[in-house]
Hints:
This protein is an all-alpha fold. The protein contains 14 helices and no strands. It starts with 10 loop residues before the first helix and ends in a 7-residue tail after the last helix. Mean pLDDT is 85; it is low at 13-18.
Amino acid sequence: xxxxxxxxxxxxxxxxTSGRLPKWAPWALLAGSFVISAAVFGVAAAxxxxxxxxIAGTVIVGILLYMVIIxxxxxxxxxxxxxxxxxxxxxxxxxxxxxxLPLVSLLWTVVANGIERFDAEFFSYSMRNxxxxxxxxxxxxxxxxxxxxxxxxxxxxxGLMTSIYLVEYGRGRLAKGITFFVDVMTGIxxxxxxxxxxxxxxxxxxxxxxxxxxxxxALAVLMTxxxxxxxxxxxxxxxxxxxxxxxxxxxxxxxxxxKVVLPTSIAGIxxxxxLAISRxxxxxxxxxxxxxxxxxxxxxxxxxxxxxxxxxxxxQYMNQGTNPDAAVARAWAAALTLILIVMVxxxxxxxxxxxxxPKMTGR
Length: 363
């Protein structure tokens, strides 16, 4: 008589027989879908440059393929109800990826096209006497840093003190009027700020003048309302109990603001300042009118024209000289440099916010 013995049950077979996919299965199917999609688009882009690879199409096709596969497999192994749940989960994740896709595609394009000129010469030389190959952006980096730093020094104290007035002191028509004009300034086109500063200096000094300080003032006009609105909202969320506890100890209002309110909201205020800097550091139109452009290095913000990275990228693309390929490569490399500067500034802002944020201690 033959004795029948049951096959050993492993954890993986137990999961499958219980009508539930293992935890690694959705991730494996997602990875497989992206691999298949990348292979298809890789074959389509064979022989082309890395920048021609369709990353957006690869992601979209991979996600659609994953939705079909996970729904079919889940309906077979699990149940129809679970398959619909997994499909809805994939749709929600897809919505997030769609929102993220333009940023990823932009970064991929800029890195793929701009990495070609990331060399020592590019960061060591200016464009003086360069009409073809070679040249660099050292003059544009100096101009961007100096103009943006000056604009920050001008706009941050004004914007921060305005927000403090609106939250802590402002009442009545004056506060409402300031809020209204700040909202209006938030939406003005950047070219209007450049025209305003140019018109002011044309009346005071004379027409045709351009210098870095004018560009810094134009950027400060754009930065100030962003700093005001961001700082105002962050100061509003500071609990009133903290203010009242300080007043109960006999601390005057100005010292309460300085020692209690501002340190409590310093992390958010730093973030709002960084958003304002990111808002203006890539502006081109107001700087073309006010700071102008030059091919040489100029470190005097109060005299002579200054080149900035966005204006450099625009100028290289519009005036390609004797070697269009070299000019376009410099434009892409300048755009990549600008993105890296913004990333470094954001990381620095997070570090500052972490160091100066109030420490929560307790027993």
